Amino acid sequence: MSPQGWINALGRMFDMDPAIVIPGHGIQGTKDVLKGQQAYLSALVGSAQAGLARGATVDQILSSFDASKYKPWSDDEKRNRTAITSLYERLKSSGAIGR
Predict the structure, then answer these.
(1) Whole-prediction pTM value?
(2) Cβ–Cβ < 8 Å for 52, 66
(3) Residue 14's closest CA among 36, 30, 34?
(4) How far is residue 61's CA from residue 75's CA, in Å, rounded to a whole number?
């Protein structure tokens, strides 16, 4: 599934109004868990898109990404690096955003 596909799927799950959400990682919670994950993924995608559009490197994108806004999803710096690098390369190779 594409990154945007995940973001959309989380929105659809939120709209189902579940009482309890048991994610694949982390602790169970309310449907707010879905909104938090969606916000984090949207921020990752947006950061990669904006960085690529301005000709930034992955390291520059990572240094400007404010992970503190998306805790606990953003707590793993290695995962953040992997996600932004993957998104950057995916966008770059698809020609979705050119320099």
Answers:
(1) 0.86
(2) no
(3) 34
(4) 17
By the 8 A CB rule, do 40 and 79 touch? no
Query: Range of 15's domain?
Result: 3-94
Q: Is 99 a member of any domain?
A: no
In whole angstroms, what separates CA 55 from the centre of its chain? 20
Query: 95 — alpha (psi -120 to 50), left (phi > 0) or beta?
Result: left
In sign, the C-alpha dihedral spanning 86, 12, 43, 77 is negative
Classify residue 41: in a domain, yes or no: yes
What would the pLDDT profile of 82-94 be if each residue is shown by its tens digit? 999 999 999 888 8
Look at the chain and report how many structural domains it folds into.
1
- Measured in degrees and rounded to the nearest 5, phi and psi for residue 56 equal -75, 155
Alpha carbon distance 40, 74 (integer Å)? 7
